[in-house]
């Protein structure tokens, strides 16, 4: 079942150690199939070098395991909530890592300010940091509540314009139209997290990217009149 999606999700998961976004098994990628309403995700706690496409786990949006010999990632309920909220606007892939630079901002409980055009090419403003979960949320359905607080933090923002978020004391989640794009956004998030940290070290009084420049860079790639790149 969903053999092509399993292959794509496997390949996306293998990008994480290649891009130095994970240590050991600290990460996962999923992909969503709109036709069946199923998602495919990495199994829990399996070393990347041991994985094959057949090891990917198929889950429905109620959390039922449809196919797979392993338990799915423990973060599966977080992925489910994000897909349920945004599947109709085109989110088809989600990534969670504990990548070093993005996680440092998350542990500090800080959003990543948009200081330049590199970030503006992908994120329409700051990269938000979600609030801390309450004790009740942690002791209850922790992973599901992590997804819900991500949705709460995004609020009225278009998640395709803010394709990533930080969870306080935890780490980053990113998403995209498919698993490969979600990984791409995870790589970008890690790079701009590093850039923002050193920018503040060099100039503690640095100002955010002017709105006119933010608009120019984001909209030339993602707006109605986008002209970056080649015609598809």
Explain what this protein looks like in three dimensions:
With 232 residues, this protein is of the alpha+beta class. It has one domain (3-222): 3-Layer(aba) Sandwich (L-fuculose-1-phosphate Aldolase). It contains 8 helices and 8 strands, in the order αββββαβααβααββαα. It has helices spanning 3-18, 76-86, 100-108, 117-120, 135-139, 142-154, 179-202, 211-222; strands at residues 27-33, 38-41, 57-60, 65-67, 93-97, 129-130, 164-167, 171-176. The two termini are 30 Å apart.
| Alpha-carbon distance between the two ends | 30 Å
Largest β sheet strand count, sense and barrel closure: 8 strands, mixed
Across the major sheet, the strand order is 4-3-2-1-5-8-7-6
- The appropriate CATH architecture is 3-Layer(aba) Sandwich
Gross morphology: globular
Topology (SSEs and partners):
Layout: H1 3-18, E1 27-33, E2 38-41, E3 57-60, E4 65-67, H2 76-86, E5 93-97, H3 100-108, H4 117-120, E6 129-130, H5 135-139, H6 142-154, E7 164-167, E8 171-176, H7 179-202, H8 211-222
Parallel strand pairs: 6-7
Antiparallel strand pairs: 1-2, 1-5, 2-3, 3-4, 5-8, 7-8
Helix pairs in contact: 2-6, 3-7
Key attributes of the depicted protein:
8 helices; alpha+beta; 8-stranded mixed sheet; 8 strands; 232 residues
Question: In short, what is this structure?
Answer:
The chain has about 230 residues and is an alpha+beta fold. The protein is built from eight helices and eight strands; from the N terminus they run αββββαβααβααββαα.
């Amino acid at each position: 079942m969903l053999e092509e999606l399993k292959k794509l999700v496997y390949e996306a998961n293998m990008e994480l150690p290649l891009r130095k976004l994970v240590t050991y098994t600290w990460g996962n990628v999923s992909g969503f199939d709109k036709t069946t309403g199923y998602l495919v995700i990495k199994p829990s706690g399996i070393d990347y070098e041991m994985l094959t496409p057949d090891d990917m786990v198929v889950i429905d949006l109620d959390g039922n395991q449809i196919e797979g010999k392993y338990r799915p990632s423990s973060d599966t309920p977080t992925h489910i909530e994000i897909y349920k909220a945004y599947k109709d606007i085109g989110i088809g892939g989600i990534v969670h890592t504990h990548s070093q630079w993005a996680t440092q901002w998350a542990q500090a409980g800080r959003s990543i300010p948009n200081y330049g055009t590199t970030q503006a090419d992908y994120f329409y403003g700051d990269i938000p940091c979600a609030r801390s979960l309450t004790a009740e949320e942690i002791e209850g359905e922790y992973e599901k509540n992590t997804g819900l607080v991500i949705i709460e933090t995004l609020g009225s923002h278009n998640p395709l314009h803010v394709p990533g978020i930080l969870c306080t004391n935890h780490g980053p989640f990113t998403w995209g139209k498919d698993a490969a794009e979600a990984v791409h956004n995870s790589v970008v998030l890690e790079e701009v997290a590093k850039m923002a940290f050193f920018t503040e070290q060099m100039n503690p009084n640095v100002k955010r990217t002017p709105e006119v420049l933010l608009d120019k860079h984001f909209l030339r790639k993602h707006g109605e009149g986008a002209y970056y790149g080649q015609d598809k």
